[in-house]
Design goal:
4-stranded mixed β-sheet; alpha/beta; 3-stranded antiparallel β-sheet; single chain; 45% helix; 2 domains
Length: 179
């Protein structure tokens, strides 16, 4: 019986403070950056060519408004997304509320009788070209792939689908694999 679906956006909140601080021209300690890149939910984005040191290097370059030298394609893309949000943290202020307001009670009701899975987690993190990744009972969603319809801010999208619908479809994949 599916009892809980937790949406974890803590990493994005930490980065929101980072981007706002950078936008003001202030500095963040290296330990704060390390806290971000070492978050357990960040592990899902680390691959060959992009690891904790890559993320640290990129965030440090963003903070110092430095050019990113000798970077991999993933590091360059991660840099561009972070620099975009550091240049205009208002984007995050518009994109984060729809994530915070996600509610999956209807999905819990859909699987209340027929599942051995009790808990699912949705981790919203920054990434590069990845849209989402399933690992066990967790879905990791790239915050940078959430798109706004600037004419209707009540709806945000991932790959052309309404955010909630996209996440529900991916969570159903997890549930259906467990059958």
């Amino acid at each position: 019986m599916l009892k809980n679906i937790k949406v974890n956006f803590e990493t994005i909140e930490l980065l929101q403070f980072f981007w706002e601080t950078v936008a003001k021209g202030d500095k963040i300690s290296d330990s704060y950056i390390m806290d971000i890149v070492n978050k357990p939910e960040m592990q899902a984005i680390y691959t060959e060519g992009f690891d904790t040191q890559s993320a640290r290097k990129v965030l440090s370059a963003v903070m110092n408004k430095e050019v990113l030298n000798d970077a991999t394609d993933k590091e360059k893309e991660f840099f561009q997304y972070n620099m975009f949000n550091a240049d205009d943290p208002g984007n995050v202020e518009m994109m984060l509320p729809p994530v915070k307001l996600l509610n999956f009670d209807d999905l819990k009701a859909e699987y209340k009788e027929e599942s051995d899975i009790e808990d699912l987690q949705v981790n919203v993190v920054p990434s590069y070209d990845m849209v989402s990744r399933i690992d066990g009972h967790s879905l990791t969603l790239n915050f940078f792939k959430i798109e706004a319809d600037w004419s209707d801010m009540d709806h945000v999208f991932v790959e052309g689908k309404i955010l909630k619908d996209y996440i529900e479809d991916r969570l159903r994949e997890i549930m259906d694999q467990a059958r």
